[in-house]
Here is the input.
Amino acid sequence: YSGEDGWKSLLKEEKLDLVYICTPWDYHTPMSIAAMKAGNHVACEVPIALTIKDCWEVVKTSEATKKHCMMLENCCYDFFEMLTLNMVRQGLFGELVHAEGAYIHDLLDLNFAKNGYDNMWRLRENIKLNGNLYPTHGLGPVAQCLNINRGDKMDHLVAVSSSDFMMGEKAKELAAKDSFFQEFVGKKYRGNMNTTLIRTAKGKTIMLQHDVTSPRPYSRLHTLSGTKGFAQKYPTENIAFGHEFITEQKLKELYDKYTPELVKYIGEQAKQVGGHGGMDFMMDWRLIDCLRNGLPLDQDVYDAASWSCIVPLSFESVEKNCKTVDVPDFTKGAWKNNTPVEITLKGGGNTPIRSRSAKKENIQLGV
Here is the structure.
């Protein structure tokens, strides 16, 4: 199956259990909806949708078809994020008050590279909306720590963006040497830095940032601040229970004691396979293990919609001079009684991993 509409033939002609979507963003919603209507579970790259209407359509389709729809937020499965999630569960940070997440990644050259993304689609996305275009890598892990959609919900937000000081200039610079880039000159690019502040129904706050153009080190922040402790992943992993960070030895002891059962079971194999340090493999293995055993997924369709809706809502707030914007409740009130994400292997943990006869660099192991 190939071509722009080959996926439609695939859904019609093949009997599938799961459709795994890794395409440009515009395809995420239509592919997810069509796959569920064809009787398949869905695992889709981030974001699941780019409009509030499409977020609701994905939720309604999942409910109507009774098919799982998981957004593949791999950062929820990184090792420090999983450690701190379990520490939150065990009460080490007390009551969480504030959390921060981000996607800060210098992609300026890649977004303007001719062979970077098909038809320059990712650069084009930076022209469409002036907001937080990629919130879920930072939001997903802290949302799980705050039990968003499972005891609390995001209530409203405000967002502000800087002007663009880099993409417009980059387009002019490249167009002066290569006419290919002329169509990108004079466009209104999104602001280089977007900051979005969210308040939850229970009075917690979340700060999200998005910047993929500035020359600065990679960061997702992953900051948790509670009544008894503090954690922050970048620039180095640190935890504090007072006004000084603990020692490296103490951090190792926390890893030994509070690494979740899921990570202890599959983590080392995940590191050997690779994929963003192993978190991709851990996410995929967990997804398949849950489906094989009839377990709820760690990230459901309501998470997919509520984490993705930050894209259009941040745009709306920026467009209206930092106006407060309400966050929809895609659970329709069920957040009050939903149980937190399971991080043990209860009911599962029995999915085998294929071996490979010879190790090949850059080849990832399937499940």
The domain at 6-336 is CATH 3.30.360.10 (Dihydrodipicolinate Reductase; domain 2). The longest helix spans residues 279-293.
